[in-house]
Amino acid sequence: MTTMKPDDFSTARRQAELSFRRARKRAWRKQLQSWLSGREQQHLLPFEAIRAELPESDPRRQGVRLVPVDKIVGSVSRYEDFTRQFLPLRDSLRERWINVESLAMRRGWPPVELYQLGDVYFVSDGNHRVAVARQMGNDTIEAYVWSFPDVVEIDPEEPLDELLIRLGEQHFMEVTGLAQRHPDHGIRFTTPGRYRELLVQVEQLRHTLAIIDGETMPFAEAVDAWFEMIYLPSVQIIADSNILEAFPGRTEADLFVWLSVHRENLREHYGDYERLADLVDQVANDWQPQGLEKIYHRIIRLIGRSAPPSPLPDIQEPEPQQNHNADATLTHR
């Protein structure tokens, strides 16, 4: 192993700290641009949230590869620490960043560990190494890769909620075949995770009918029964009422799932209903203008502008740092 002289190591740390400050400045500018434009801040994509919208499957080990760093767009656990371009969002990442970059100057890194979905990658281990590699201008990074067989397209620039809704819809339609049999189904959500609730409803209905009939209904027939017996009557009541006027931008499907998820809590006020459509009807009839504001705040998540990002100090050449251990260890992730 090559050992750096103390002066060389001190220089490497100063260069690494300057690199971190520059990266933080770029991240702050992106935060400010997002705030000024009212757009959602683009963190790394969260791997587990995306996997939850896809069919269950096991990854296949692909061995060691050179992976383009601009194809790495997400993380298993550190997705809130970096922007979509792996710029650091927290000052607390400074020391680890400096250790990682200093190690790169001394002897290089071990491979990072990545999951592959479609043609993009998510970091399992080595988030800081990927971030430093991008800041240093590296085109590729060595990685152990595990790939999932899912056929999925992920646009690195797509807002997270839109991506999760699209993947959830794709999975739901593939599993149920609803779009082929009912092309005018009209199911559209504005928040992610709702299609999973629909699948739960289908399975619950299928189980109930199996108890009544003494035999298990084919899944496709259960989907059609759910659509015609539960979903359509409920959303028709919602559409005929004025209840959505209080929720601009929301859909009948949004409110349908909300009522389903909170059905147990609503029973305390409206009583027990065998059919979800009956509960929807009662809520719609009970909807009074004077109560809109109160219920509005209880039901939906208000999207308001947060405070702008705190200003960063001007970038200056850091002062020399003394008495650093030349064998400082690399902390993964």
Describe this structure as you would to a colleague:
By secondary structure, the chain is α/β, with parallel strands linked by helices. The protein has helices at residues 6-37, 47-51, 94-106, 127-135, 160-176, 178-181, 194-213, 219-240, 252-261, 263-270, 276-285, 292-299; strands at 45-46, 60-68, 72-75, 112-117, 120-125, 140-147. It folds into two domains: 6-147, no CATH class; 160-287, no CATH class. Strands 1-3-5-4-6-2 form a six-stranded mixed β-sheet. The longest helix is centred in the first third of the chain and has 32 residues, at 6-37. The two termini are 23 Å apart. Mean pLDDT is 79; it is low at 288-306 and 320-333.
Secondary structure layout plus pairing:
Elements: H1 6-37, E1 45-46, H2 47-51, E2 60-68, E3 72-75, H3 94-106, E4 112-117, E5 120-125, H4 127-135, E6 140-147, H5 160-176, H6 178-181, H7 194-213, H8 219-240, H9 252-261, H10 263-270, H11 276-285, H12 292-299
Parallel strand pairs: 1-3, 3-5, 4-6
Antiparallel strand pairs: 2-6, 4-5
Helix pairs in contact: 1-3, 3-4, 5-7, 7-8, 8-9, 8-11
